[in-house]
Amino acid sequence: MNDIAWDFSNEDETFNLFNSEMNLIFCDICFNKISSRKVAVAVSGGSDSLSLLILLNNWAVCNNFSLTCITVDHKLRDESYEEAIFVRDFCDKIGVKHIILEWKKDNAAVAHGKIEDLARSARYTLMSDYCERESINIIAVGHTWNDQLETFEMRKNLQSTEFGLAGMSRVHSISKNVKVIRPIMIFTRDHLQKFLIRKKILWKNDPMNDDSRFKRVFYRKNIFSLDRKELINKSSEIKLFGKKRRDIEKQAVCFLRENIIPETIKFGYMVFDSAKFLNEEDEIQAEILKRTIWNIGGKKYAPKIDKITLKNIIELKKIKTLGRCLLKVTKKRIAIFRENRNLGQKILVDQNGTFLFDNRFLVSIKDGKFHDELTKCVISSCKGFENTFDKSNLSGLPHEVVCSLPCVFINDKLVFKYGSKNNNFEKASIECEFVHKVNLFDIFL
Predict the structure, then answer these.
(1) pTM over 0.90
(2) By Cβ atoms counted within 10 A, which residue in 223, 297, 438, 445 is the most buried?
(3) Pick from 280, 279, 261, 281: which is nearest to 271 by CA?
(4) SS3 for 69?
């Protein structure tokens, strides 16, 4: 990352700094692996995202990329649609394609959940789905260095790990083919607002940004009271934590890529050599286990593994289960299986015949000659049915693995078991694959 641009001097410098940051980001994410010359930008109409739109449009024109602007109408305020139209009109003036995505929120979920978290999750899901459909690999979002400072303060208050104190990464994956980038984290909000004023461009102010009921706003107001020296000191801390996180993640990912057998991932478990694992430093060991447990267990968040937890797993063997996983540590190998409980209840298949079972296996039932029977399909685990089919393709798999594989039933009759060649349902093709999280082999930059 470039140094933080605290003060605005002129437009040319701002464009040059932004272009330099984009070049660094594309170098980090291996530009040659990006399949399309398309990029999207998330714009709400505020000063941060509007500045990003202007800077990114200039970069896209210079680098022969097509740019699509996305505005999510969350409908949390009456003005949200007007703000989306404001962005659309601005895009028309500068010749950028614009799309409005509407959040059709679940009012019951909103009533019982944290509205900030729900809105953020919905926003990224809507944008990711759109970009997947349109073969867009990159979404730029408008987080500034102010947002990074707020994140640091929030996580510090929650006694976060050093990884958390590294703050937001400038690149991360949100789906198999889509990455989010944060190219204006090198700028302060004050810098960008002066940039817009110089260009005589107005922006929209979101009143929720000043609503103290929201946790982030509380920390935002605290940061306003800090002087420049204090802000620079905090920024230096964040950068040091960020460098340490990148180094640890890079080594952990290298270990996983070199030592995990692809065939084990296919069946939803992982095994690696104990000696090679123990040769790594403690922090790298913890990161390796965190990523593998997160993927095999299928939970929403990765487990926290500190030095005490790591010792209890590896040396003392006090911890046998963690994050819905069973851990088996021997002198020769370390094996991580899905724990054989809470494997997902029997789930009726919906009309499109696709379901993510246990948050790990994607099961697709193609509608062949049995449309009337599709709604009678049920997906469950193989637990209790391990010996029902021949084991021609399951021989050698540990019992814990076979139990956790998905089965398909029709009218209470077992017709498909993942991995078995002797599946006896001929009216439709049933496909299944283990879906590991996109961040398994990702490095946060």
Answers:
(1) no
(2) 297
(3) 261
(4) strand
Per residue in 38-78, pLDDT (tens digit) is: 999 999 999 999 999 999 999 999 999 999 999 999 887 78
Pairwise CA distance, residues 418 & 434, whole Å = 10
DSSP string, 322-389: ETTEEEEE-SSEEEEEE-SSS----EE--TT-EEEETTTEEEEE---S-HHHHTTEEEEE-TT-TTSS
In terms of Cα–Cα distance, which of 138, 151, 146, 142 is closest to 183? 142
> Which of 213-217, 279-283, 299-303, 356-360 shows the lowest per-residue confidence on average (mean pLDDT)?
213-217
How far is C-alpha 428 from the geometric centre of its chain's CA atoms? 33
Share in percent of the chain as helix, strand, coil (round to 5)? 45, 20, 40
Using alpha carbons, list the distances in angstroms from residue 370 to 136, 238, 346: 36, 57, 20
For β-strands 321-322 and 171-173, DSSP reports them as unpaired
**Cα atoms in the 13 Å half-sphere on the side-chain side of 110:** 12
Q: Residues 227, 45: contact at Cβ < 8 Å?
A: no
Task: State the greatest distance between any 2 C-alpha atoms of the chain, in Å, as a whole number.
Answer: 73
Q: Is 403 exposed, middle or buried (0-12, 13-18, 19+ CB in 10 A)?
A: buried
Which residues make beta-bridge pairs with 173? 179
**Which residues, 6 or more positions from 441, have their beta carbon under 8 angstroms from its beta carbon?**
253, 256, 257
DSSP structure class, residue 302 = P
DSSP string covering 158-174: TT--HHHHT---SEEES
pLDDT digits (tens, 9 = 90+) for 303-344: 999 999 999 999 989 999 999 999 999 999 999 999 988 886
Closest CA to 181 of 42, 69, 65, 283: 42
From 135, 434, 387, select the one nearest 262 (Cα to Cα): 434
Starting at the edge strand found earlier in the chain, the sheet holding 430-434 runs 354-357, 361-365, 430-434
Structure tokens at 147: 């947002």
Task: Report phi then psi at 271, rounded to 5.
Answer: -135, 135
Containing H/E element for 256? helix 228-259
